[in-house]
Design a protein that fits this description.
This protein is an alpha+beta fold. The chain is built from 17 helices and 17 strands. It folds into 2 domains: 279 residues, 3-Layer(aba) Sandwich (Aminopeptidase), CATH 3.40.630; 152 residues, Alpha-Beta Plaits, CATH 3.30.70.360. A hairpin with a 2-residue loop joins strand 4 and strand 5. The chain is globular.
């Protein structure tokens, strides 16, 4: 081999060795911050709560069939009114101490007056639920059955259980003589599942009264395990933003007619080809800032092999983003906008050509992108002027709440006090919540459901056999007691 070639080869080898050494040293130093490992909010000492009594009250709320519907005539408003009437009986001390306002005759806004009115905390939940058929349930979905150490029924997790945890915490604190340092508001709405006007009305009402919350906490992430590569043990994921939720429609029109003499490139074919092109050219993977924060937080707790990746995002970020895009549906959703074709419509009969073929697509817009930008990219991918793409509902991502100021630290401390073994991390919520209306006007909005939830339990949300263990309900009450004491 000529001398110059040998020199170049040795130089390249030396550079590779230096690069490998840099990667390994950075990974060795990539450890959790001391602040993340210190005890918080009582050092994890349990707070006595009566979880069994709380389970009985949750059971009563589940028996109220507060099923929301976009068709006003389909919702049984008597069930909603019955739930509103029941709450003062279940929580008498809280209702004596707090001001209760029924907004628009449907939703609840409570004020617990503190020593100071500035920068109040808003705790959110919703008491409407999605429909449930009895088939496939071990216990009827609106029975509120207490069996096998669990409360069964629609809303046990999403989110009548959360409502109970909040009110149980308030009831216990009021009975003990506790007075909050700042005002606390409870915002409970009846139409979250249909993206209704309950939460927007509460936001407008607070704005009109000159109230500017210093912290808002709504449903969101939970304490989970086995969701992040290389990390063992529980992880508490706190939503600091939400992906945008948009609905698109693809439409192709034609002459219709009898199926015995089909034309080439008819509406159904063009629509199918458009969907296939979207599948072949998905949105590009990338990590928005909140996801980078999550990778940093959890990467420090991962096994050494994974720490090599997460400690060196300065070099490996594009590679890791592509890996996340392929690893699983969940990691793909964390690293890109997603497009899911959910509805198809064509001819009403097998022997009739469709005069119009339509598909509906639910698009979850990643932080850093917009619905309009995604639509433009989809049109380029489809590359067919005969396919009309229109935005039925445009929903951009929410603003991102900081993790570097006191409101986030308060939430994280309450989590660590309740779940000392859990690593607390920010993340971007894949679903939507009422809190996006608060995040549009106020900066400190966080999304956390205070339970340890297994994959099986998470999969029952909006599905059969939704249920919540009584022990976990008790931990949720502990979380809110710690949170309320700290704000």
């Amino acid at each position: 081999m000529p001398q110059p070639a040998v020199s170049i080869l040795l130089l390249l080898l030396a550079l590779l060795l230096v690069l490998a050494a840099v990667l390994l040293v950075r990974a060795a130093r990539f450890r959790p911050d001391a602040a993340d490992l210190a005890p918080h909010a009582g050092g994890g000492e349990p707070i006595p709560v009566d979880a069994d009594a709380a389970a009985g009250r949750l059971s009563q709320l589940i028996r109220k069939r507060t099923v929301s519907s976009r068709e006003p005539s389909s919702a049984d408003r008597a069930e909603f009114r019955s739930l509103l009437d029941l709450l003062p009986d279940l929580y008498p001390a809280a209702h004596r101490a707090l001001e209760r306002e029924i907004v628009n005759g449907r939703t609840l806004l409570y004020r617990w007056q503190g020593a100071e009115p500035e920068a109040p905390t808003v705790l959110m939940s919703h008491f409407d639920v999605v429909p449930a058929e009895e088939e496939g349930w071990l216990h009827p979905p609106f029975s509120g059955e207490i069996a096998d150490g669990r409360v069964w029924g629609r809303g046990a997790i999403d989110t009548k259980g959360t409502l109970v945890c909040i009110l149980e915490a308030v009831e216990q604190l009021v009975a003990s003589g506790f007075k909050p340092k700042r005002d606390i508001y409870l915002s409970f709405c009846d139409d979250e599942e249909i993206a209704g006007d309950g939460a927007p009305t509460h936001v407008r009402l607070l704005q009109e009264r000159g109230i500017r919350p210093g912290l808002v906490v709504d449903e969101g992430g939970a304490v989970v395990e086995n969701i992040f590569p290389g990390v063992r043990g529980p992880i508490a994921v706190v939503g600091v933003a939400e992906k945008g939720v948009s609905d698109f429609e693809l439409v192709v029109r034609g002459a219709g007619g009898h199926a015995s003499a089909p034309p080439r490139l008819g509406p159904a074919f063009r629509l199918a080809r458009a969907i296939q092109r979207l599948e072949r050219r998905p949105p590009k993977p990338f990590f928005p800032p909140p996801t980078l924060d999550m990778l940093d937080t959890l990467g420090r707790r991962s096994s050494f092999g994974y720490r090599i990746l997460f400690a060196n995002l300065w070099l490996l970020r594009p590679l890791l983003a592509r890996l996340f895009h392929r690893l699983s549906p969940e990691t793909r959703a964390l690293s890109s906008t997603t497009i899911a074709v959910t509805t198809l419509q064509g001819s009403p009969a097998a022997n009739v050509l469709p005069a119009e073929a339509k598909a509906g697509a639910n698009v979850r817009v990643a932080v850093g992108e917009t619905a309009a930008g995604v639509a433009a990219r989809m049109r380029r991918a489809i590359a067919d002027d005969a396919v009309e793409l229109r935005i039925v509902r445009a929903g951009d991502p929410s603003p991102v709440s900081t993790t570097r100021e006191e409101p986030y630290r308060i939430v994280a401390a309450a989590i660590r006090g309740t779940y000392p073994e859990a690593a607390v991390t920010p993340y971007v919520m894949l679903g939507g919540s009422d809190s996006r209306h608060f995040a549009a006007v106020w900066p400190y909005v966080y999304r956390f459901t205070p339970y340890e939830l297994s994959r099986e339990e998470r999969e029952t949300i909006h599905a059969a056999n939704e249920s919540l263990p009584i022990r976990k309900l008790g931990k949720g009450i502990e979380f809110y007691i710690r949170l309320i004491r700290s704000v």
